[in-house]
Amino acid sequence: MSDRDTLLSVRDLVSGYGSTRVLQGVDLDVERGSVVTLIGRNGVGKTTTLRSILGSVTPTSGSITFDGTDITMLSPEKTAREGISLVPEERRVFPGLTVSENVEIGRIGGRQDIDKPTVEEIIDEFENLARHRNSKGANLSGGEQQMLAIARALVSAPDLLMLDEPTEGLAPSIVKQVQRKITQLNDEGVTILLVEQNVQVALDAADYVYILDKGQVVHEGPADEIAADDEILDRYLGVSAAE
Ligand SMILES: Nc1ncnc2c1ncn2[C@@H]1O[C@H](COP(=O)(O)OP(=O)(O)OP(=O)(O)O)[C@@H](O)[C@H]1O
Ligand SMILES: [Mg+2]
């Protein structure tokens, strides 16, 4: 992969909580315009990887470069200004705020150097949010909350959207909606780094896949190659590829 096409580059990243080291030297690249997925069993460090990129967990060592800028030690606010947005695990929708107010909060941070879309423009892109713009977050279904979390991340006009298990706990038809949204956003030019427990979703959505185990990348490759590799899927994920 040439440097010119690499939007995000993570090198030898060591990170954790207090004295607990979770990431033991993670290397990964995200090519501009691609969908990259990060998969692995529970507790291997997927969320910690995203948090370390965002800056809510401070790396111990290693480097993170985004669009040519060293962002290793930046705070989440500063990382967002560089053009990275995270849709967190469990969505974190503000239950007492309306759909519009939730999205408004996402618009405060993020890039300051471009014209960001308005709250209304973003909500209009989500069919199932447009109907509920004055509803409180608490009154939305799981799928609607997930779409709201994505809308809140998009209103800052990120170049890189990171999503942490966006299909978790959703019914199969809603999983498909989330999948379609991710594909649509990528078609519109947003680069995606996706963490997924649903291996089928991860492999379908991705151009390139990294498998994480015990805080290290243990396998990587184009999604179609990983999907065809039953031995790898079984060893690191305990699943076999869908027939
Ligand atoms: N805030 C925290 N403080 C201390 N340890 C943590 C914290 N968050 C996560 N950990 C630990 O770090 C390790 C990696 O957690 P992480 O959340 O990155 O895993 P994950 O791959 O995202 O797992 P899951 O699939 O369950 O979401 C786990 O052992 C977890 O218990
Ligand atoms: Mg996680």
Can you describe this structure?
With 243 residues, the chain is of the alpha/beta class. It has two domains: 1-83 and 160-165 and 190-243, P-loop containing nucleotide triphosphate hydrolases (Rossmann fold); 89-158, no CATH class. The protein has ten helices and ten strands. The protein has helices at residues 46-54, 76-82, 99-108, 119-124, 127-130, 142-154, 172-187, 199-205, 223-227, 230-237; strands spanning 6-17, 20-31, 35-39, 61-66, 69-70, 84-87, 160-164, 191-195, 208-213, 216-222. It has a six-stranded mixed sheet, sandwiched between helices. A four-stranded antiparallel sheet has the order 2-1-4-5, covered by helices on one side. A hairpin with a 2-residue loop joins β1 (6-17) and β2. α3 (99-108) runs parallel beside α6 (142-154). It is globular and about 45 Å long. The mean pLDDT is 92. Residues 46-47, 89, 164 line the site of magnesium ion.
Please describe the topology of this protein:
Blueprint: E1 6-17, E2 20-31, E3 35-39, H1 46-54, E4 61-66, E5 69-70, H2 76-82, E6 84-87, H3 99-108, H4 119-124, H5 127-130, H6 142-154, E7 160-164, H7 172-187, E8 191-195, H8 199-205, E9 208-213, E10 216-222, H9 223-227, H10 230-237
Parallel strand pairs: 3-8, 3-9, 6-7, 7-8
Antiparallel strand pairs: 1-2, 1-4, 4-5, 9-10
The structure holds adenosine-5'-triphosphate (ATP) and magnesium ion.
